[in-house]
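Quick entry between incubations.
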Amino acid sequence: MSLLVVGSVAFDALESPYGKVDWTLGGAATYFAVAASFFAPVSLVAVVGEDFTAKDEAIFKGRHIDTEGLERVPGKSFFWAGKYSENLNERVTLATDLNVFAGFQPKLPEKYRASKYVFLANIAPDLQRDVLHQVKGTPKLAALDTMNYWIERTNSELRETLKHVDILMINDSETRQLSNEHNLMRAAKHIFKMGPSTLVVKRGEYGAMMVDKRGVFCVPAFPLEEPHDPTGAGDSFAGGFMGYLAAAKNLSDATLRKAMVYGSVLGSFTVEKFGLDRLRVLKRSEIHARARHFAKLTQFKL
Amino acid sequence: MSLLVVGSVAFDALESPYGKVDWTLGGAATYFAVAASFFAPVSLVAVVGEDFTAKDEAIFKGRHIDTEGLERVPGKSFFWAGKYSENLNERVTLATDLNVFAGFQPKLPEKYRASKYVFLANIAPDLQRDVLHQVKGTPKLAALDTMNYWIERTNSELRETLKHVDILMINDSETRQLSNEHNLMRAAKHIFKMGPSTLVVKRGEYGAMMVDKRGVFCVPAFPLEEPHDPTGAGDSFAGGFMGYLAAAKNLSDATLRKAMVYGSVLGSFTVEKFGLDRLRVLKRSEIHARARHFAKLTQFKL
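Done. Structure below.
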């Protein structure tokens, strides 16, 4: 079933102990769409500037990614520059040039309005809510990502938007900041009162955790010897997770657990190379092999 | 099969946001022995002072814990005082009074010398090696814990001792410090060259990871809403892990995975209350129920 994503398509300059790239395609919606497209057709809503060329757009071609909602406007695309620490766990933002993204007003093409699976990547909460209004009826599943900036500066807008989403998908520190609870179990209870019935916490090198009324599910991060660049890992996780759910068409506990695994699989591939380099060449067979590897990582028999 | 533990029996003063105790029995060997005794008979080697009373010793009675190796000498027992931060993740040491522990020279009673399973809790590496020399023949399994103090100050002694152990069981930061590698997969490779064939990394609220030549196994921490006191969690983990192995009498991958789970189960109970309060009243049925809960936390079917 078609999966709508609204978020950023951007250019990044990235530096880690493993190398440096000065200009590479990035953005949450890009990582999400490419990752999700391995499982289900994706409808993309984003905005780019004149620096976004046919060569950049090529990444969406030949995949099940509809780009009718990719708006092009005069000016430059969103640009982000960051540098990772020796251990890849910390990063310094060197530049955040919003450019055309500053005026982003997501507009869903008519054919997107029937989307049943919706992912609201990290953008202003009022825009996220506006996207939900443009979707016809109630989506089968709406998930949302956000960040400290919105939690701090537009908290009431975010709270209003959260009333309308099923899954909140954020990292440890965002979970703690939003709920004002260090303990993630108590944090989840707070967040359930805000609207979402499922909390997915992305924990970087520690994996991911899902909490809902049925219980808790944990999946570790894939142990890589040479992670190169964490950029986009969380968005790739979200893409694998939502893509798997959109393809599965049911929301059973067993399906959500598998979605967590496939999200982790996609996230783990992304960090293997810079930017989108690994996802560009990723094969379905590799995805399934790594999912089986995740089973080996975690399974035991009492 | 009998399991030998050599380490500290101490008194602790503990403070966390959940409360405060001024004087409670603690020490790595105490937590280890109590946790392991749910699975296998334990032989304890430690030293205490005159402040250690029959009331304190009662914790070992009625369990399969042999205290012939618990030496009593004039003076005070090892005393540690610590205070945990709001989130329990950081702690400040307020006092470390080694007292009689400063002169600790582990002496194995004759009947302990046939031990086939040996756990060397966190003491000076030369003493750990001396214990191994006192054991007759080569133990079936020797595991060792250590800390930053020994890694920094007695590195070559530690390296010498590591040549003779099978399992190194330490936390994230110790793993990184010892191997000089941030990445845990590369750290494991370094550590295998030092002697151990298995690395167990204790990661606190993120669970534990085991790496050996057969692969990697990850187990999450049990999600608790109200952890009270992390003191002894790692030692209880080690006790559950080694106790399970000593009872299982084989070292297959499947057995080691189950040992990781039972280690996590024991660690998770310990943090529920202050000091040994939870382990004192713990029942075998609760252990098995929580192990099944760990399965629920992690299992999925592709």
